[in-house]
Specification:
The protein has about 475 residues and is an alpha+beta fold. The protein is built from 18 helices and 24 strands. It has two domains: about 230 residues, 2-Layer Sandwich (Nucleotidyltransferase, domain 5), CATH 3.30.420; about 210 residues, 2-Layer Sandwich (Nucleotidyltransferase, domain 5). A hairpin with a 5-residue loop joins strand 2 and strand 3. Helix 1 crosses helix 7, helix 3 packs across helix 5 and helix 12 runs antiparallel to helix 14.
């Protein structure tokens, strides 16, 4: 048995996977987010540990006793500042905290090669700008900081007594030389830190330590090894078998992610593409991120007065047409890839007397698909190649939307019998690799294919001029968004 623990934002999930790679049991414990000011997002690190203990202890005792190794995944970017006694100095500043926007410019000015070294634009979500904010606004806390850990790194410290990070999570700090897979002295110096403030680094499939005797006893387990693990998206990729160059997944969640494995470091920061290390040695990944994906459908449900997303999608499918004049820009929360434009906003363009719920719903599906296509272009522009794309997330249940996406991307989409376990399954697989030293391709296998949606030539032809109009509308409105 192998235990995977995912330290998420809203909960901690724990799963136990057997030697046949079957999830035999899972449990979770909730987490709360504190928002003391507009745009702020914080959590108490002690809550991660409490929730981790609750989730693990909710698993059957006989299964826990059989666990051979533990793996960790978790929310990325969160800044956990520790003092000389390894105690948190303040609440952790999370990935979705926006207070450090001005500090991003400060950081890139201090190190002009920042994008070249890290492969990423400095954004408030990353860890380094948060530390610049602390330096400027909480100087006493900054002075007392002896180590900075990411959320799962803090949980690991309490599990093993070791300060350890792994490559996929570290790549999201802006302190990693992503191509060389090591800390960057230049980026640390730009933040006022040094490598002494950083944990040692391991690969995600390597052991990072062993459970402390007291923790093992409390959990009813042996002192088993703890794998390096992975950031949430990288661990999720390991969980669905997206591990070799050319493999990709498209996530249709609240936000949208296009994740592509690459054989080397292939940055394209000019298009706000993320370039990170994968959680397995010798491979990297690119990621395009759109801030609103399936959440746009929820917005359209409210706008049109339909009962829920299922009803709206049913109306769209019954309409069965891609030839409407309506065009939707899905920037309800701004946009990341490729525009890096927090001021962008949603737009519904081209309405007429026939623009009913079904027509508006179709425009929303197309707009999200066009935004994914923009992201795909950014990945390919950096020199990547894509062999196949698996679709995951709540929006993956709509085969009609799958056809729209396939036509917009001009690529087949693979729908798998994927478990909804997510990153925790990938963490358990990484635990197994750390213990058994098996080949990653023998453990991190993709689930069986349920259906493949091929792009329809007529749909491609109908969507092409609409995508050109979609791009032009954004360019025309971009200056005006500054005044909204």
């Amino acid at each position: 048995m192998y235990l995977g623990i995912d330290i998420g934002t809203s909960s901690v999930k724990a799963v136990i996977v057997d030697d046949k790679d079957t999830v035999v049991e899972q449990a979770s414990a909730p987490l709360n987010v504190s928002r003391p000011h507009a745009g702020w997002s914080e959590q108490n690190p002690a809550d991660w540990w409490s929730a981790t203990n609750a989730a693990v202890k909710a698993l059957p005792a006989d299964l826990r006793k059989a666990v051979k190794a533990v793996g960790l995944s978790g929310q990325m970017h969160g800044a956990t500042l520790l003092d000389a006694a390894d105690k948190p100095l303040r609440p952790a500043i999370l990935w979705n905290d926006g207070r450090s926007e001005s500090q991003c410019a400060t950081l890139e000015k201090a190190e002009p090669r920042a994008r070249e070294i890290t492969g990423n634009i400095a954004m408030p979500g990353f860890t380094a700008p948060k530390l610049v904010w602390v330096r400027e606004n909480e100087p006493a806390v900054f002075k007392d900081t002896r180590c900075v850990l990411l959320p799962k790194g803090y949980v690991r410290l309490l599990m093993t007594g070791e300060k350890v990070g792994e490559m996929s999570d570290a790549a999201g700090t802006l302190w990693l030389d992503v191509g060389k897979r090591r800390w960057s002295p230049e980026m640390l110096a730009a933040t006022g830190l040094s490598e002494s403030h950083m944990p040692r680094l391991v690969e995600g499939s390597d052991a990072s330590g062993t459970l402390l005797k007291a923790v093992a006893s409390d959990w009813g387990m042996d002192q088993v090894p703890v794998a390096g693990g992975g950031g949430d998206n990288a661990a999720g990729a390991a969980g669905i078998g997206v591990i070799k160059p050319g493999d990709a997944f498209l996530s249709l969640g609240t936000s949208g992610v296009l994740f592509l494995v690459t054989p080397k470091f292939l940055p394209n920061p000019a298009k706000a593409v993320h370039a990170f290390c994968h959680c397995l040695p010798g491979v990297w990944h690119q990621m395009s991120v759109m801030l609103s994906a399936a959440s746009c459908v929820d917005w359209a449900v409210k706008l049109t007065g339909t009962k829920d997303a299922a009803e709206l999608l049913s109306k769209v499918e019954a309409r069965g047409s891609l030839d409407g004049p309506e065009i939707f820009l899905p920037y309800l929360s701004g946009e990341r890839t490729p525009h890096n434009d927090p001021q962008a906003r949603g737009v519904l363009f081209g309405l007429n007397h026939d623009s009913d719920a079904a027509a508006i719903g179709q425009a929303v599906l197309e707009g999200v698909a066009f935004a994914f296509a923009d992201g795909l272009d950014g990945l390919i522009e950096a020199g990547a190649t894509i062999d196949e794309i698996s679709v995951i997330g709540g929006g993956a249940r709509s085969m009609w939307w799958g056809g729209v996406l396939a036509a917009a991307l001009k690529r087949p989409l693979i729908y798998r019998d994927a478990s909804e376990v997510g990153p925790a399954l990938g963490a358990a697989r990484l635990a197994r690799l750390a213990k058994t030293k098996e080949r990653a391709e023998d453990v991190c296998r993709p689930p069986p294919v349920r259906v493949v949606i091929e792009p329809n030539a007529r749909d491609i032809e109908q969507l092409a001029p609409k995508r050109r109009a979609f791009s032009q509308i954004y360019q025309d409105l971009r200056p005006r968004f500054r005044g909204v």
